[in-house]
Amino acid sequence: MSATWTISSVREAIAARKISARELAAEHYKKIAARNTELNVYLTLSEERAYAQAGRIDAAVAAGKPLPALAGVPIAVKDVISTRGVRTTCGSKILQNYIPPYDATAVSRLEAAGAVILGKTNCDEFAMGSSNENSAYGPVQNPAAPGTVPGGSSGGSAAAVAAELAVASLGTDTGGSIRQPGAFCGIPAMMGSYGRVSRYGLIAFASSLDRIGPFARNVADVATVLRIMAGRDPNDSTSTTAPVEDYSAELNKPVKGMKIGIPKEYFGEGMDSGVRGKINAGIELLRKLGCQVMDIQLPHTDYAIGTYYIIATAEASSNLARYDGVRYGLREESDTLVATYRKTRGAGFGAEVKRRIVLGTYVLSAGYYDAYYLKGQKVRALIAQDFRDAFQKVDAIVTPTSPVPPFKLGERTADPLQMYLADIYTVTGSLAGLPGISVPCGKVCGKLPVGLQIFGPAFGEARVLQLAHAFEEAGGATL
Amino acid sequence: MKISREDVLRVAELAYLDLTEAELETYRAQIDDILEYISKLNELDTANVEPMAQVLADDQTADATLREDIVVPCSVAGDILKQAPDPEPPYFRVPKVIER
Lengths: 479, 100
Known about the structure:
The complex is a heterodimer of chains A (479) and B (100). Chain A is an alpha/beta fold and 479 residues long.
């Protein structure tokens, strides 16, 4: 019988020598061996690397040395984030045997803080999807609601924490890919502001939107992992020099009097009534905590999905041009170089990736660039302005994370547009570059998890985490 | 109809992407739906709006500067070539590019 581990309980147990880092890693690998066939969470395990790191932690404990913040904490990493010497597939056939020659900065910072990287988690191919059903390696089961999708694209990372196959995990969020699976699997999940965490080593999908962020058992652990990863990295020119606050120290500051904006545009048609009930109860809870709740407007919300799918696919079509069968990954040989490119890409990419490459190339092509791509960039500016205006009046904005609770496997795969609309509440913050968290907000019919989303102004991570922490402490998860 | 079969063929050509006959028609129809949905953006007058290419440019608190362009030693060439489907160290081998 094993405990439910958190970062703080791991720290205490290891410092008190109640368990070694090695034993803790072994305990997790044992649970993974028992459940991975059913859940399909991990694509690759990095046991050698994990045990080497655990050995270093145990040696530090034995020598009585001070322990870093994540000493011995078992962490899972989404398979679009590079890990030196550990296979990284991006959920794609085209990178089936790819071994990165370097680590992502986020990974090396976590390891430097003592984390034990257990392995790589399943995800939608190149992080394109909202249900994890676009993985070339099969779907992931939602451990919090059997038979339903875990959300996407970071479904494996969310499920790993929810099933206690890792204490925390890393996902990536381009249009909702951390927050929505966090909501579906019933755990907190956060993306910091654009530029807060280095993207170095994150295999690119849409560079102006991609962000790395944590899943964890509770908000305090989310704060710890985010802080360790955050900060300027010379290897990513879009990582910012803005100072990183001590999120953990700020966590318990009072939220009484905090002004919370509720955008009416997020509460229209298309929201499941069960989700609506839980979110309204969540807002009521914030009011009881002394927050000042007020209605606000984000008038361009309705244009966000269209804008997002122009910009994200345009950037993807450009970023994915690198998969040509020459330098790494799959090659399908043909008689000319161009025919080799075409055949390799046709065989190596799955349906959703091809669809987005076609759409993205189209919106960038001569004759359509102004009508689609340039238009999208202009509407993106309007959406960002909506948020700047709103944050003149409020400290945080609260919405549902997803309009629907976790849906059944296979239920939405036939119609890509319907799948895209599942991201309707998350893409706005992605386009505007804002920090956002999803925290558990009860369960529909007692079994389907609902997430409450909190947006803050740019680099307002500390405030977002304070509010999420207060909500969690007040029993938000059991509403 | 927003996108034709010829458009999809032209785009697949630009993207160096082989599509099967079935994919061609499926994607055409699905992308047509998506473009129809996207056309909602035309309701907005954006004549006087500056396009937003990235987030940080308009954030005064961010100081995303380029680093100095300094050459630093890098010894991963061997690891990188190991990933190639058809390496001929120190080169990547490809089918003949120049005809005759």
